[in-house]
Amino acid sequence: MTAAAHGLRAWLLQRFTAAYLAAFVLYLIIRLGGGAPASFQAWHHWLAGPWVNLAAALFLVSLLGHAWVGVRDVIMDYVRPSGLRVSVMAAVGLFLIGMGAWGLRLLFLVAWRGA
Amino acid sequence: MAASEIRPKYLNLLRIRMPVGAVTSFAHRLSGVLLFLALPYGLYLFDLSLQNPEGFARAAALVHTPLVRVLSILLVWSLAHHLLAGLRFLLIDLDIGVARRGARRSAWVVNMAALLLVLAYAGSIL
């Protein structure tokens, strides 16, 4: 893949994930905006529902992809020495993968227990 | 050549007059980084709240501590600004509001709307 195509792919990823993130955040504000969930049972039950669970998993993956492109751009702009730049990017990448594993495992467990 | 090398450089942010769009853009970046830094804390609260009823109660109590309240104001601003400025950038990508007048006005609206939203939020929790 050429550098230009790679850039285009990142650009597209940033915009498609942005659209989904915005839509899901608005849904959350409407759904939960009236107040926090009343109880553990209500909260857990809501997230265990297959559609909400799947939408939340997609949200998490979109969020991490979006964060990766955004933070990578910031690093490329402000971290000049290439060795340091690669190290910081690797650390951010591992951190995001860790967040993804943590979040997806949690969502899966909630769906599993809820089912 | 020699003359051009003594041009004044104002790297002092207080002396640079940034166009309103630059403020929107820089704040979009800053708010994105803040949201990124908040990720593990948010995920921790999410995890805690889903473990069992005790965890849920602990997460709810944590959210109401003064420190988390103050931080939540910063995060609500970050989310509001990042979302609104992001929607503005998406519209500009679609060739909507590219002309200077419209772009300046929408940048100003985004900056102000994010501040108004966070003021309303801060007022509601303090």
Q: Can you give a write-up of this model?
A:
Chain A is mainly alpha-helical. Chain A has a single domain, classed as Up-down Bundle (3 helical TM bundles of succinate and fumarate reductases). Chain A is built from four helices and no strands. Chain A has helices at 3-32, 40-48, 50-78, 82-114. The relative contact order of chain A is 0.12. By secondary structure, chain B is mainly α. The radius of gyration of chain B is 20 Å and the shape is elongated. Chain B contains four helices and no strands. Chain B starts with 19 loop residues before the first helix and ends with a helix. In chain B, helix 1 runs antiparallel to helix 2 (53-63). In chain B, 21% of the residues are buried. In chain B, 77% of the residues lie in helices and 0% in strands.
Task: Provide the descriptors you would attach to this structure in a database record.
heterodimer; A: 115 residues; mainly alpha; 3 helical TM bundles of succinate and fumarate reductases; 4 helices; 88% helix; B: 126 residues; elongated
